[in-house]
Design goal:
heterodimer; A: mainly alpha; 3 helices; elongated; B: mainly alpha; Four Helix Bundle (Hemerythrin (Met), subunit A)
Chain lengths: ~100, ~180
């Protein structure tokens, strides 16, 4: 069988790729994709540990909650990105540097 | 090496390689479509962790919902965005990328160290779970258990998530309506 360590190593790799995307990308959509990658790494760990809890099934349950939360986050974040684009005509997070007034 | 293990390594390789491609490519459209493949490979990994319902949910919500949403936002945020990326003729490794690479690499080293130190297979509660047969068997049907648990043990988080989804729906609709007062 596949050991827990294998799953955790894959999760660690995905998490670090997501971190790299968040730090270096010049595009809010790609930053958002980096966040999604990190969330998926966390969900992978939840699911892998949830295998050892048959009765309460906490791992899979909270993986489902995390997926739903990720969907809600993305919807709001994309609405914000569209608003920012309307106002600044760019979605480079480094160029968005003024407040409303 | 058993078939399951081989499948695991193939899925893990696809997931990591496509994630690397997503992170490294200049072409935004290509990176979004490559992200599809990462998510599908991750769904495969969930199946190998005996969480078939989570895998299906991943495909339905992530691939069917979130990625379509990302594509929408990408198309709506204009052509100028594409031109900006295409016109950016930076060398493969620039200064700010080195900092990010350094940060991510160090974090990776720390995480790997931690994982090997933690030695998750020999944890107390996991040994106990194997001993008392509280482990999910490959032929078990877990969907019924998820449904029952959702309505009994995890009812409060379930309701909280439903309220939060409604808040997010109203918030997104409010943020993206027409008019200057947004």
């Amino acid at each position: 069988m596949i050991s827990l360590t294998d799953f955790m190593i894959v999760g660690a790799g995905l998490f670090c790729i997501g971190l790299f995307m968040i730090v270096t990308k010049h595009n809010a959509i790609q930053v958002l994709m980096g966040i999604e990658l990190m969330l998926n790494a966390a969900i992978l760990n939840l699911v892998a540990f949830g295998k050892y809890d048959r009765v309460n099934n906490g791992g899979q349950m909270f993986a489902l909650f995390a997926i739903v939360l990720a969907a809600a986050t993305t919807a709001v974040a994309l609405a914000i990105i569209l608003n920012v684009y309307k106002r600044y005509k760019t979605i480079d997070p480094g160029k968005i540097d003024s407040l409303k007034d | 090496m058993s078939l399951v293990q081989m499948l695991f390594y193939v899925m893990a390789f696809i997931a990591l390689a496509s994630a690397l491609f997503v992170a490294s490519t200049k072409n935004l459209v290509r990176s979004i479509f490559m992200f599809f493949i990462t998510l599908f490979a991750l769904a495969g990994l969930y199946v190998l962790a005996l969480a078939d319902f989570v895998a299906i949910t991943q495909i339905v919500i992530y691939v069917g919902g979130i990625l379509v949403l990302i594509l929408f936002a990408f198309m709506l945020s204009g052509k100028q965005n594409l031109n900006y990326i295409a016109g950016q003729q930076t060398p493969f490794i620039s200064i700010n990328k080195i900092a990010g690479l350094f940060l991510a690499g160090l974090f990776w080293v720390v995480l790997i160290n931690l994982i090997f130190k933690a030695d998750a297979g020999n944890l107390e509660w996991i040994k106990k779970s194997v001993q008392y047969k509280n482990e999910i068997q490959p032929n078990a049907a877990m969907t019924e258990n998820i449904g029952v648990n959702l309505m009994t043990r995890y009812l409060l988080p379930f309701e909280a998530v439903s309220i939060l989804l409604m808040i997010a729906l109203i918030g997104a609709a409010h943020l993206s309506r027409k008019g200057d007062t947004a």
